[in-house]
Amino acid sequence: MPRKEITLSRTHRTALIGCLVGLCTVAIAPLFLDTYFTNILIRTLLLAAVVMTVDILWGYTGILTFGQSAFFGIGAYACGLVFTHYGFGPGWALGGLALALGSAAVVAAGTGWLAFFHGSSPIYASIITLALPIVLTQVIYSGGSYTGSSSGLSGFPTYFWSLEVWFWIAGCFLVLTTTAGWLLVRSDFGRVLIAIRENEDRSAYLGIPVSRIKTMLMVAAAMVASVAGFAYAAFSNVVAPELAGFQLGTELLIWTALGGRATLLGPVFAAIGIDTMSSWLSGAMPFFWKLLTGIAFVGVIVALPRGLAPLISGLWNRLRPQRNAIDFEASVVKAPGTRMLQGSFGDAPPLRIVGLSRRYGSLEVLRDVNLIGKGTELLGIIGPNGAGKTTLMRCISDGKERTTGTLYINNVEIAHSSPQQVVGLGVGRSFQNTNLFETLTVSECLKLARYRIDGASLFSRSDTVALPQPSLDILQATGLDKKLSEETKNLSHGMKRGLELAMVLATEPSVLLLDEPTAGLTRPERMAIGSVLTKLTRDFGLCIVLIEHDLDFVRAISDRVVVLHQGAILMEGTVEEVVASDLVKAVYAGHKEDESA
């Protein structure tokens, strides 16, 4: 049987080379360092690993967290408490490490549950993480002799290895965790993290479980920080409340900002440099070094808001020869066994709305809406501005939006489901204003839309995107199939609208909600979109609900039209019946008179 040849991608080769260089540097560094700096660097290297997790959370995912110091402290106190009160030895050390990992994971999961529920604001999440080290510090203070209160614990038995051994442990831990983090942020899953940072709402409406991903990421980061804290306590033979405190959590954020958010290596090197310098300055200039550090921080933030790493990388890119080849060439293929739902489940229609209402305080935006969307039908919803059309879209795609009423997707009641759960039932939605990810490429955006179905690799990146035929049709109709490696922000308005529609279709919906999909498009672009929408209902059995102000476009493609007025259904019927209705004409005429007045 022939051997299968193993090949590494460019990203994996770079990671392997970087890891080997880092390990070699760690191996020989103690030969050139004196005892004082070796001692300082052991703590610094462990903290640098924690800073790396802060950058993944804050820089790549957009979670401004003050809580990583708490998890560092949990690991440190797990070591100190076990070795002080229970016993010391290999078994106790493994038990203490397991306690550190388990405790950090449980606390992080609880913090994520409190901070990352659907609809929570980033500020709220930051406040929760801000309270975490404060609460943990108070718990340590109230622990009396068990935790050592404000004095901490010291003098417990530990492994009194040489400084070189501890340096190798701390250095290898940093190199290995940073290599794993570097692969993570450059993987397909890393694109998901960036998408959450840039546009959390759009991510949710593509079926990406934003809250679960944030919580799982916080758990993983907490476990890394707890291992670093455990190692530091075992090395230093001292634990104190400051290791879990708010000040250390703030310093971790400052080092991340100075090094450069979303660069990974920048914060790591910034942590090593600043913490080492601070340790030296605290001895050389005990009353002046904090002022110098503060001035340097303010100066960098004002002059270089993105940190030092982007400046250095920018200078490097200018000096090195430019290459014309594209580093990452993407391609699309047809998804095998497309699971786009056809028509309805049993005899039930794909969309059924019963008695739906939506109130904002005393303002009733929608009232007693009853509507059925059939398979193979394009249902147009028209009405003057303020009639409640977009609110109706929100109520269909988010179970928590409506005030009263019942809504069924493919014979399943959505209840209070979040947008990502509603997507799983078969709903795809485009927005009135183009809602994309500006720094990601076309292929990366399409791959995000397939996350619910295909998932995403944690440590590798694929160069192909498997799409259902309707998405491929949109790409071809809009010319996006030739711009897969183009960043979204460089696309024309028409291409952005087409990309959003292709992304929604990539989720393989059975109910497609389109809010003014042709707004701002040229006539040829509108015709191309209309042709694809007609094909979706005819060939793929989709139920399409279309909000559109262009009545000519509605007339050309709709099977049935519903007129909304002041939050209620005024009329529904065929296109000809609605267009010819004197009542509808009067409503539009009255609305125009109100606007002119």
Automatic annotation (TrEMBL):
Membrane topology listed for this record: Multi-pass membrane protein
Protein keywords: ATP-binding, Cell membrane, Membrane, Nucleotide-binding, Transmembrane, Transmembrane helix, Transport
InterPro entries with a match to the protein in the record: AAA+_ATPase (IPR003593), ABC_AA/LPS_Transport (IPR051120), ABC_transp_permease (IPR001851), ABC_transporter-like_ATP-bd (IPR003439), LivM-like (IPR043428), P-loop_NTPase (IPR027417)
Main location: membrane
ABC transporter domain sequence ranges: 351-591
Gene Ontology CC terms, in alphabetical order: plasma membrane
Transmembrane segments: 12-33, 39-58, 70-88, 94-116, 123-145, 165-185, 217-240, 252-275, 287-308
Location(s) in or outside the cell: Cell inner membrane
GO MF annotation list: ATP binding; ATP hydrolysis activity; branched-chain amino acid transmembrane transporter activity
Top-level lineage group: Bacteria
Protein name, as recorded: Branched-chain amino acid ABC transporter permease/ATP-binding protein
